[in-house]
């Protein structure tokens, strides 16, 4: 009887787990197959990789994910956003019905709006909304991803590519904001968000990181 083992996030194995796996691989059994799943093969020990056959799978395109989501009942207005956040259809389904994620979208949109309409309230919004909702590192990264997508939408609007925006339910308001900013400023703001994501990965204090980011995003703000 054949046995199949699947190790998810194989790159996150501890040193002891890696050594145990290496011993397992050094004495292969014809009746046993092990799949090591990872998105970062460079983090797996070379001695383990040398004993494995590497199979590369291309992620699903956003278009395919959108199609599958819509065909299975997801609101067409929400599917594009979900498809930009994950390559997993299953994860997209979970996000679609996740109350935390629904609230996260509202908080991110509100933060962007106060940045543009009244930057003085941005720090207040962080204290009353953001820090209370985005607590874990993974949640903060999700929030930054959502914020980044808002700025991408603004660029698409300026490039007359409205069909590519993902915050469909906010499209009218985003079109108004796109008229009062420049492509250069949007690009700088997106760079600031990407820099914040890198700082968070390096374990910078999340509150300090967000406060610095808000100040950076405010540069060149226009009141409307």
Report on the architecture of this protein.
Helix 6 packs antiparallel against helix 7, helix 7 packs antiparallel against helix 11 and helix 8 crosses helix 9. The termini are far apart. The model has no long low-confidence stretch (mean pLDDT 92). This protein folds into two domains: 47 residues, no CATH class; 121 residues, Zinc Finger, Delta Prime, domain 3 (Up-down Bundle), CATH 1.20.272. It is elongated. It has a two-stranded parallel sheet. The protein is mainly alpha-helical and 224 residues long.
Question: Short summary of the structure?
Answer:
By secondary structure, the chain is mainly alpha-helical. It has helices at 15-26, 46-49, 62-71, 79-85, 89-96, 99-117, 122-133, 137-158, 171-178, 183-201, 206-218, and strands spanning 3-7, 32-36. The protein folds into 2 domains: 3-49, no CATH class; 98-218, Zinc Finger, Delta Prime, domain 3, CATH 1.20.272.
């Amino acid at each position: 009887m054949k046995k199949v083992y699947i190790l998810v996030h194989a790159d996150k194995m501890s040193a002891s787990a890696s050594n145990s796996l290496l011993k397992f691989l050094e004495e292969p059994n014809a009746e046993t197959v092990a799949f090591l799943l990872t998105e970062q093969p460079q983090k797996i020990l070379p001695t383990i990789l040398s004993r494995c056959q590497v199979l590369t799978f291309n992620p699903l395109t956003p278009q395919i994910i959108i199609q599958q989501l819509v065909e299975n009942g997801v609101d067409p207005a929400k599917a594009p956003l979900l498809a930009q956040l994950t390559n997993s259809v299953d994860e997209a389904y979970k996000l679609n019905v996740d109350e935390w994620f629904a609230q996260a979208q509202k908080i991110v949109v509100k933060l962007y709006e106060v940045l543009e309409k009244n930057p003085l309230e941005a720090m207040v919004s962080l204290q009353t909304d953001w820090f209370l909702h985005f607590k874990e590192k993974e949640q903060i990264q999700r929030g930054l991803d959502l914020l980044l997508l808002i700025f991408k939408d603004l660029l698409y609007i300026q490039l007359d590519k409205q069909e590519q925006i993902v915050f469909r339910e906010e499209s009218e308001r985003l079109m108004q904001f796109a008229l009062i900013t420049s492509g250069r400023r949007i690009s700088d703001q997106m760079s600031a968000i990407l820099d914040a994501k890198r700082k968070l990965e390096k374990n910078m204090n999340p509150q300090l990181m967000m406060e610095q980011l808000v100040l950076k995003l405010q540069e060149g703000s226009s009141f409307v």
